[in-house]
């Protein structure tokens, strides 16, 4: 997603409809999708594979890949309405839902989208603090030995990240943060590649492939079920990109038709991403077996080379500083735009002040932006401090929005656009597809919530 924002805003020229001129190609689209999908969620896949075992783990990732591609194909046809090639453009997911499904479901879609973005901000606070702590612990282990009690709390790191985000959140909009997005994208690929490489190295060092068909054993059947459900939620968090698919598609030039290019790009990008996920998940599990950490780079399955562990975690931190803003800026824009429309004469909301600091560019300060964005960052930081549980939080976020945003809305919009009649063969197949995904989502959500409650009470 980071590359998406920087590239689509780089060109100031506009099309006839007043929007940014579309110059995207198949290859830029593939790059956008891969960058949007590969993020901090990849670090939990080794743990997810360990809970599911050698058969169910890889099969689950392949199933989520297929589901994601089907969802992307259905949604890409909804970029234009009523015809997928010649119809009027829908620039965002909410625009498409409003056209096809009406105002009420648009509000539901918007709520889930912004909830997902807000929740991702919470997850990023947790992940960043864990990586900051991991750097501290890595250096401690290197100096004091691997058995040293190098334990540090999360709260101070979360507060530091929150302070950084309060400053970064005063960036007015995406037009002023292209450089931050590009850096974040490079960091994402860097730490993912390091985690993959360290997994391979550990397997070679061990001289054996660890793990079993049944995965990590649990004390009771119930505990095993909860862990499996939570693992499915983590995989769900790592895959879908539905909430930004139409925004990516809006960067494509035509001809050829945008939906055709998008389907080809989705197939290629999901294939590459799945290969990468399978390698990270499988080699991580093969390296550590039943001791596979929840986060591949911060669980200290790897101690050396310590400088590479430090570098990888530094990449995570830099990526998530930018990633937090990528997911938060749409929430800021919606909130501030709505308030400006409701209270057009309010100086607090609409008046800006220019502050000049020697040797620095002039700062455009708005009181609403200062107060509301600061409160937003404080709230995400506060919730993260209350529930600092990496795998469980990712599971809840993935399962909470997976079915409605990646399955339900694309299927329902496709029915309306293609005028698919009830109880026809296509209608029955897609409804079964939606129902199965709903059941998986509910199972994953319940398991992840149980994981948070158990972690909180323990």
UniProtKB/TrEMBL annotation:
Residues passing through the membrane, by range: 25-47, 54-75, 111-135, 155-173, 179-200, 269-288, 308-327, 396-416, 428-449
Gene Ontology MF, one: symporter activity
Family: Belongs to the amino acid/polyamine transporter 2 family. Amino acid/auxin permease (AAAP) (TC 2.A.18.2) subfamily.
Cell compartment(s), UniProt: Cell membrane
Main location as per UniProt: membrane
UniProt KW keywords: Amino-acid transport, Cell membrane, Membrane, Symport, Transmembrane, Transmembrane helix, Transport
Name of the protein described by the UniProt record: Amino acid transporter
A biological process from GO: amino acid transport
This protein's GO CC annotations: plasma membrane
Ranges of residues in domain Amino acid transporter transmembrane: 23-453
């Amino acid at each position: 997603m980071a590359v998406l924002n920087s590239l689509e805003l780089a060109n100031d020229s506009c099309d006839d409809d007043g929007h940014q001129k579309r110059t995207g190609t198949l290859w830029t689209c593939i790059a956008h999708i891969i960058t949007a999908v590969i993020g901090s969620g990849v670090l939990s896949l080794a743990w997810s594979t360990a809970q599911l075992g050698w058969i169910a783990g890889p099969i689950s990732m392949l199933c989520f890949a297929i589901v994601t591609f089907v969802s992307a194909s259905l949604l890409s046809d909804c970029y234009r309405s009523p015809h997928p090639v010649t119809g009027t453009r829908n620039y965002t997911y909410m625009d498409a839902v409003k056209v096809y499904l009406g105002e009420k479901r648009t509000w539901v879609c918007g709520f889930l989208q912004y909830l997902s973005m807000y929740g991702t901000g919470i997850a990023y606070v947790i992940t960043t603090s864990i990586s900051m702590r991991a750097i501290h612990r890595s250096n401690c282990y290197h100096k004091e030995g691997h058995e040293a009690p190098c334990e540090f709390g999360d709260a101070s790191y979360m507060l530091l990240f929150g302070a950084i985000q309060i400053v970064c959140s005063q960036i007015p909009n995406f037009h002023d943060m292209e450089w931050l997005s590009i850096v974040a994208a490079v960091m994402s690929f860097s730490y993912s590649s390091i985690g993959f490489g360290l997994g391979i190295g550990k397997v070679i060092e061990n001289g054996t492939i660890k793990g079993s068909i049944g995965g990590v054993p649990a004390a009771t059947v119930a505990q095993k079920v909860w862990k499996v459900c939570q693992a499915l939620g983590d995989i769900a968090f790592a895959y879908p990109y539905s909430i930004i698919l139409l925004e990516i598609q809006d960067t494509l030039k035509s001809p050829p038709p945008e939906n055709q290019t998008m389907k080809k790009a989705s197939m290629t990008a999901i294939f590459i991403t799945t290969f990468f996920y399978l390698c990270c998940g499988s080699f991580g599990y093969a390296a550590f077996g039943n001791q596979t950490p929840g986060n591949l780079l911060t669980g200290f399955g790897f101690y050396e080379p310590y400088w590479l562990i430090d570098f990888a975690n530094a990449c995570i931190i830099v990526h998530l500083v930018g990633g937090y803003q990528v997911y938060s800026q749409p929430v800021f824009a919606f909130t501030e735009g709505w308030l400006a429309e409701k209270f057009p004469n309010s100086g607090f909301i609409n008046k800006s002040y220019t502050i000049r600091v020697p040797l620095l560019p002039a700062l455009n300060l708005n009181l609403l932006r200062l107060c509301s964005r600061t409160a937003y960052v404080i709230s995400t930081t506060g919730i993260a401090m209350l529930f600092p549980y990496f795998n469980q939080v990712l599971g809840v976020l993935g399962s909470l929005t997976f079915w409605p945003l990646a399955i339900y809305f694309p299927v329902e919009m496709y029915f309306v656009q293609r005028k698919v009649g009830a109880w026809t063969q296509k209608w029955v197949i897609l409804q079964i597809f939606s129902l199965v995904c709903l059941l998986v989502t509910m199972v994953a959500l319940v398991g992840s919530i149980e994981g948070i409650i158990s972690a909180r009470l323990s």
